[in-house]
Specification:
The chain is an alpha+beta fold. It folds into two domains: 1-31; 34-121, Nucleic acid-binding proteins (OB fold (Dihydrolipoamide Acetyltransferase, E2P), Beta Barrel), CATH 2.40.50. The protein has three helices and seven strands, in the order H-E-H-E-E-E-E-E-E-H. The protein has helices at residues 3-30, 37-42, 133-138; strands at 33-36, 51-57, 63-65, 70-76, 81-87, 99-106, 112-119. A five-stranded mixed beta barrel has the order 2-4-5-7-6. The longest helix has 28 residues, at 3-30. It is elongated, with a radius of gyration of 23 Å. Mean pLDDT is 82; it is low at 134-142.
């Protein structure tokens, strides 16, 4: 190999290595476990990692401050409840009994500090009633 070919070969290897490292580092930072409240409560090894929790907003101890961009509430599963402190824009569909997904990490006091809050809108995914005008004009559910 001549001297310029050697330089280009080394530069290509370094470039490919750097791109691979950045891609891997970005993917690892973006990976987040998604689990239910009961599973999270039973697996304490996940408590020091960033996770996504799925559950239902409890009816009691719901404290929403849309102007201050925060909400404090309990998210519950079948057997367990987890205290959540959320900071950010509170979705309009957020209320007691709503199905939610929160993303964050548990602090030393045992409160789940969330910075992502998404509500699920079940009505979007339910079948339309048979007598709905859109169903009769299309000949079935969309």
């Amino acid at each position: 190999m001549t001297h310029p070919k050697l330089k280009f070969g080394i530069a290509a290897v370094v470039l490919v290595g750097a791109v691979a490292y950045l891609a891997l580092a970005g993917m690892q930072k973006g990976w987040v476990y998604t689990m239910g409240v009961d599973q999270y409560a039973s697996e304490t090894r996940q408590h020091n990692q960033r996770v996504r929790l799925c559950g239902t907003v409890a009816e009691t101890d719901l404290d929403i401050h849309k102007a201050q961009l925060q909400a404090n509430f309990y998210i519950h599963g079948q057997k367990n409840d987890i205290r959540v402190a959320y900071k950010g824009v509170v979705p309009d569909m957020f209320k007691a009994g709503a199905e939610v997904v929160v993303e964050g990490k548990q602090d030393a006091a045992g409160i789940f500090q969330a910075d992502v809050l998404m509500t699920k809108c079940a009505s979007k995914y339910e079948d339309m009633p048979k007598d709905h005008p859109a169903v009769s004009s299309q000949g079935g559910n969309p």
